[in-house]
Amino acid sequence: MAIKFSKKPGIVAYLTAGDPDLATTRDIALAAIDNGADVIELGVPFSDPLADGPVIQRASERAVARGVRLTDVLALARELRAARPEAGLVLFSYLNPVVRMGMKTFCARAAEAGADGVLLTDMIVEEAAEYLEEMKENRLAPIFLAAPTSPDARLKAIAAVSQGFVYAISRVGITGTQQKIAEDASGLVARLRRFTTLPIAVGFGISNAEHVKTVGEFADAAIIGSALVALIEKTPPPQAAEAVGQFIAALRA
Amino acid sequence: MSAGATIDSPMAGRFGAYGGRYVPETLMAALEELEAAYNAAQKDPAFQTELDDLLHNYCGRPTPLYFAKRLTEQCGGAKIYLKREDLLHTGAHKINNALGQGLLAKRMGKQRIIAETGAGQHGVATATVCALLGLECVVYMGEEDMRRQELNVYRMRLLGTEVRGVSAGSATLKDAINEAMRDWVTNVRTTYYILGSALGAHPYPTMVRNFHRVISREARVQMLEREGKLPTAIVACVGGGSNAIGAFYEFLPDANVQLIGVEAGGRGTALGEHAARFQKIGGGLPGVLQGTYSYVLQNDAGQVSNTHSVSAGLDYASVGPEHAMLHDSGRASYVSCSDADALKATVTLSRTEGILPALESAHAVAEAIRLAPTMAKTDVLMVNLSGRGDKDMGILARELDLKGSEAAVRQAGEGTKG
Fold it and tell me: Staple partner for B144: which of A52, B171, B239, B379, CB 3.0–4.6 Å?
């Protein structure tokens, strides 16, 4: 159990946990892993997902309405870890549900569930002292976002505290699909390379095999989020796992 | 955070444990740029001169400190003064901040302005400043708020602003801020976000408070001139808390001046029925919403709660971080006022003084009406009358049956439907 990308480019699959329901998310995650996803990012649904576009907003809203809680997502992580000991597993959350549980409790329970790392969307490096301490204590990888707008000094600080991989945001903006990979992305990855030997994964707007191939030319892994969540939204739940499995398999074809 | 490792952070923008910066990384460069530009502007006498000139000649500062004689007599206790922010251009205190940030945006060379609005007063103020300075303006507003503050939607459109409705969540202020932040993340290189309350990530809470400090700076001088002493207590309504922090700030060192914030008690004490973040039971807990660490109305899983208030401007799940600090330290106290009492206070102030308060400000008036009779006649109570109520005529006509018979209308002062 560690975050590693054995094939190039690696595939990170983001799923909003509990959309359409927790059991289906579990089946989808297993199908994604079995069809080539190196890392699963389990998204904790939140009432105010201000970094997300309409697709993930809707998924989050549906899951919150169903009453899906951080504790449910931790339980789901534990199930996935038991079923697939080798897969990379990252918990992806806005800060407030974590603050509500308590940072110390959350980190301990994330480690206990078998997660490899954590990404907190609205946690920046300057505010992260306690978070980093608890992550270290629990041997979890803190994963931070790096943005095209981040000046070199910030990228350096982000690289210095990151583990597992660095999440490079492909363009300014919120999550969601786009036609082609922004030129921002390769420039950002090149700047990040100067500060880290960690794998660099590119996310935001990556939605098809062509995008993944493009990302593979300059980065270590591609993160697929909204495209998967949109596919799940339009697929009847009993077929969702198979649909996602086929989609992931085709990404590196 | 809760266990405190960041509390001692040397980073600016902390109010005790509260405040800070909790935003997606994409916004960090913009916040750093904003902080640097704001700090430079503060040190530039030319910036302050231009702001002061416009505050005086365009907005109408200083605002009067008015002795409410008939209201005082009716309450039968402390002398009640009203700080008349409602008389400012555009009808509320919001223009103080919108103008300051508008000038800052222009100085930074940003041509596109975005803002959120609840009651529409910040939206109107921002639309006004953008017209004045020749800037492009987009305002995000919850669809529920567009419905109940319809007149302000028309005002913004007339001023040349594009109003974008937000249907997510409860379609109120919180949802408008989410959407404004999404716009800012997307257009961060060209766009300035004029946040309308003392909320959000650093430097906003400090900057917004400083643009509103003029309220207490004036009031302190005016009160000493009029009464030869400082007020016994100052009362202000608290949504995000910009008018309150502006009215409190220069009095913070005066330990004998009581500072009282009034939150929206809505229609009940259960979660979802009010916006009283500091309410003892069923109130908020420290958490992170929209960039800052403060009290947040939320469930036990950390999902942010919907809120209710008859006044759109107070209808928000969190509160400015400086208020969270003042609450915890006890320097200010926070109470709440129900929809029904705010409506009653609106009628009372209208009929005793001929002043129609905004429903937001009416919460502060209601607390003053409750408090004054418990105080000595030598005591002095100052209410920050943050805005005027013309925008609320639709709600008032419905809630107070103003469309009904003359007899029914006369009775409105005795009680309300709410």
Answer: B171
Look up residue A203 and give its two tokens. 């996310």
How high is the ipTM of this complex? 0.96
| A46 contact residues in B (CB cutoff 8 A) | 302-303
Q: What's the pTM value of the predicted model, to 2 decimals? A: 0.95
Set of chain A residues whose Cβ sits within 8 Å of the Cβ of B30: 149
The whole-angstrom distance between A246's CA and the closest CA on chain B is 32
User: Would the CB atoms of A47 and B288 count as touching at under 8 Å?
Assistant: no
Q: Which of B116, B263, B322, B353 is catalytic?
A: B116
Mean pLDDT computed over B115-128 = 96
Dist. CA B315–CA A54, nearest whole Å: 24
Q: Is the pLDDT of residue B146 over 70?
A: yes
Looking only at the bridges linking them, the beta strands covering A166-169 and B285-289 are unpaired
Q: What is the mean pLDDT of residues B345-358?
A: 98
Strand order from edge to edge, sheet including A145-146 = A141-143, A117-120, A88-93, A39-43, A10-16, A221-224, A200-203, A166-169, A145-146
- Beta carbons within 8 Å of A197's beta carbon, 6+ residues apart: none
Q: Beginning with the edge strand found earlier in the chain, give each strand of the sheet holding B14-15 in spatial order.
A: B14-15, B18-22, B291-296, B285-289
